[in-house]
Amino acid sequence: DGGITQSPKYLFRKEGQNVTLSCEQNLNHDAMYWYRQDPGQGLRLIYYSQIVNDFQKGDIAEGYSVSREKKESFPLTVTSAQKNPTAFYLCASSNRGRTDTQYFGPGTRLTVL
Amino acid sequence: AQSVTQPDIHITVSEGASLELRCNYSYGATPYLFWYVQSPGQGLQLLLKYFSGDTLVQGIKGFEAEFKRSQSSFNLRKPSVHWSDAAEYFCAVKYGGSQGNLIFGKGTKLSVKP
């Protein structure tokens, strides 16, 4: 089955620790995205990548980092510099055409203890 | 800044009643419009999308939406709601060009009364 997988589904972290969220897709999409979702806030774009070895900051990139070494993988690291990291994180992917549609993974809920 | 507004944070409807969820976007040339649905603790699922052509688009699960350029709106409708439609609904817009990113509304939570 083609799709997007995110792991783990639930993640707990102590303050001051970095943590990496996994996102893998087998849809052969060029573009991948990371969003943060907080209650009542909708989705906010953290980082996106249109092609391997290239990525761009979104609206709320501070305290996060990404890499894009393979087409199918786009891991997100939440660093200790992120002041309020507890949230639901969603990964998406799409083709790069003008009318491309983003497809979403199941999400990872990160809780800082 | 370009934005998407979903005026209703929470809507409750009775099962079998009709539904309309509102979405307004800020003016921009060539908007591409989307509606997604999210069940609690899950990812987003695409319901329908509008790129061009017929302004009334059909989606999955019996949903439809109408694009009205004069009102900058893309409202989602369903003639008869089922209990399984209870979820959160997000409207999103992307402006013309492959480099444009999706801009999401803050969502409308739908509750369904038996």
Query: How would you spell out the order of helices and strands of chain A?
Result: EEEEEEEEEEE
Which blocks of ≥5 consecutive residues of chain B have pLDDT under 50? none
Question: Which radius of gyration of chain A do the C-alpha atoms yield?
Answer: 13 Å
Largest sheet report of chain B:
6 strands, mixed
Count of DSSP-assigned helices of chain A: 0
Measured distance between first and last alpha carbons of chain B: 41 Å
β-sheet strand percentage of chain A: over 45%
Oligomer: heterodimer
Structure summary, number of beta strands of chain A: 11
Structural class of chain A: mainly beta
How far is it from the N-terminal to the C-terminal residue of chain A, by CA?
A: 35 Å
Proportion of residues in extended strands of chain B: over 45%
Helix content of chain B: under 10%
The gyration radius over C-alpha positions of chain B equals: 14 Å
Number of strands of chain B: 12
- Which sequence of SSEs, written as H and E, runs from N to C of chain B? EEEEEEEEEEEE
In DSSP terms (H or I, runs of 4 or more residues), the helix count of chain B works out at 0
How confident is the prediction overall: mean pLDDT of chain A? 93
Description of the structure:
The complex is a heterodimer of chains A (113) and B (114). Chain A has 113 residues and is mainly beta. Helix content of chain A is 0%, strand content 50%. Chain A has strands at residues 4-7, 10-13, 19-25, 31-37, 43-51, 54-57, 64-66, 76-78, 87-94, 103-104, 108-112. The radius of gyration of chain A is 13 Å and the shape is globular. The N and C termini of chain A lie far apart (35 Å). The model of chain A has no long low-confidence stretch (mean pLDDT 93). By secondary structure, chain B is mainly β. In chain B, a hairpin with a 7-residue loop joins β10 and β11. Chain B is globular, with a radius of gyration of 14 Å. The chains are: A mainly beta (113), B mainly beta (114). The A-B interface holds A 4, 6, 33, 40-45, 48, 50, 58, 88, 90, 92, 96-107, 109 and B 9, 32, 34, 36, 41-46, 49, 51, 90, 96-99, 101-102, 104-107.
